[in-house]
């Protein structure tokens, strides 16, 4: 596997290794308590649970999207409380499609922590590989020294982002292309099951994040992803791409797939569609 992905088999071999941290981020956008229930019913031994609604998002204002990106200092404090140090090897998993796992991968990379891998195929792959199961709630095992240890974060985010104002300005003077990771019917504005307005940001391209996966929920081979994204990019460079979705989560899946394909450097619009449509003055396109 790459340094971005780890197989269930390799995780089984390393699960007792010193300095490894495993995070379970299973989540359901329509049932916010489902992930924690699933975790309590069974999880990878030693895994800690992080909630995308209450821990991995900042406070919602009604105009900053459904999963606002926390301040880096707040995310750093959260991860220190979970036992993260500069030496930690982190593995993140979700139910199986890596949507939420890729989002935490991106957040940790944005924070400045490099040693993060996504469990390819997630919880389903773990079970198929015969992995052991632990039940109940597990609290972080963190000493006071660890909790206070500096993570040595870089002064600037390690992964680039853009905000709504930059996306709006780009409509008048284009310097980047937005790539929408939502399903095609949501992109076209034919349906909108979550947000109050249907459609997409004018000029945005569409690649549903599900196209990054094989039928079993694992990622396509890196070379296949590379060819698919190169065809999508055309004469653009990865640095000229900004990833967007409903609230920054599935956009991270596309960004992760590009990194896996050796096409690093794209940016994320964390607020995404849910933030964009919170202001009725921002234009919407349907097609």
Written overview of the protein:
- The protein has 287 residues and is α/β, with parallel strands linked by helices.
- Helix content is 32%, strand content 10%.
- The chain has eleven helices and nine strands.
- The protein has helices at residues 8-14, 34-41, 72-81, 99-111, 122-128, 144-148, 164-172, 184-187, 222-233, 249-260, 272-276; strands at residues 5-6, 20-24, 48-49, 89-93, 116-119, 177-180, 205-206, 241-244, 267-268.
- It has a five-stranded parallel beta sheet with strand order 1-5-4-2-3.
- Helix 4 (99-111) links the parallel strand 4 (89-93) and strand 5.
- Helix 4 crosses helix 10 (249-260).
- The longest helix is centred in the middle third of the chain and has 13 residues, at 99-111.
- The mean pLDDT is 94.
**Beta-strand residue percentage:** 5-15%
Q: Report Rg.
A: 18 Å
Mean pLDDT: 94
- Assign an overall shape: globular
User: DSSP helix count?
Assistant: 11
Structural class: alpha/beta
Largest sheet geometry: 5 strands, parallel
- Give the spatial strand order of the biggest sheet: 1-5-4-2-3
Number of strands: 9
> What gap, in angstroms, lies between the N and C termini?
39 Å
Low-confidence stretches: none
| Oligomer kind | single chain
What share of residues is helical? Answer: 25-40%
Strand and helix map with partners:
Elements: E1 5-6, H1 8-14, E2 20-24, H2 34-41, E3 48-49, H3 72-81, E4 89-93, H4 99-111, E5 116-119, H5 122-128, H6 144-148, H7 164-172, E6 177-180, H8 184-187, E7 205-206, H9 222-233, E8 241-244, H10 249-260, E9 267-268, H11 272-276
Parallel strand pairs: 1-5, 2-3, 2-4, 4-5, 6-7, 6-8, 8-9
Helix pairs in contact: 4-10
């Amino acid at each position: 596997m790459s340094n971005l992905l780890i197989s269930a088999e390799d995780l089984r071999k390393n699960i007792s290794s010193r300095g490894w941290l495993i995070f379970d981020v299973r989540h359901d956008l329509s049932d916010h308590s489902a992930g924690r229930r699933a975790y309590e019913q069974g999880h990878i031994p030693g895994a800690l649970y992080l909630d995308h609604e209450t821990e991995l998002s900042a406070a919602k204002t009604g105009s900053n999207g459904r999963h606002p990106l926390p301040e880096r200092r707040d995310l750093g404090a959260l991860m220190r409380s979970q036992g993260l140090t500069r030496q930690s090897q982190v593995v993140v998993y979700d139910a199986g499609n890596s949507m939420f796992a890729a989002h935490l991968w991106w957040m940790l990379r944005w924070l400045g922590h490099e040693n993060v891998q996504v469990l390819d195929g997630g919880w389903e792959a773990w079970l198929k590989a015969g992995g052991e199961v632990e039940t109940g709630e597990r609290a972080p095992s963190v000493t006071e020294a660890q909790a206070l240890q500096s993570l040595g974060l870089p002064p600037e985010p390690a992964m680039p982002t853009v905000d709504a104002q930059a996306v709006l300005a780009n409509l008048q003077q284009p310097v980047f292309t937005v790539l929408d990771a939502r399903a095609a019917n949501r992109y076209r504005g034919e349906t909108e099951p979550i947000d109050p307005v249907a459609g997409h940001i004018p000029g945005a391209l569409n690649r549903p994040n599900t196209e990054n996966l094989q039928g079993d929920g694992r990622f396509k081979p890196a070379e296949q992803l590379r060819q698919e994204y190169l065809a999508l990019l055309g004469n653009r460079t990865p640095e000229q791409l900004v990833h967007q979705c409903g609230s920054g989560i599935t956009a991270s899946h596309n960004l992760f797939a590009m990194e896996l394909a050796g096409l690093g450097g794209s940016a994320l619009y964390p607020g995404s569609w849910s933030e964009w449509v919170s202001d009725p003055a921002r234009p919407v396109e349907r097609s």
